[in-house]
What does this fold into?
Amino acid sequence: MRTDNARAVIKAYRRNYSPSVMSFLKRLTGYLAAAAVICLYGQRETALLVLLILIVVDGLLTFSFSRRG
It folds into this structure.
């Protein structure tokens, strides 16, 4: 991914981001759905790893956005 594309994705995410608990629960539901689909294909370890990575990235972005204002 080019740097310009990555910056555009982060900028769009920041514009649509909401720090509320309900928004986090909606994102968590999506993360769980992604992990469930992977798990249905028989890759339980991969599903757990993907879920963990998504939650960590979400936490890092939340922390980053809250620091910037």
Helices lie at 3-16, 21-40, 44-68.
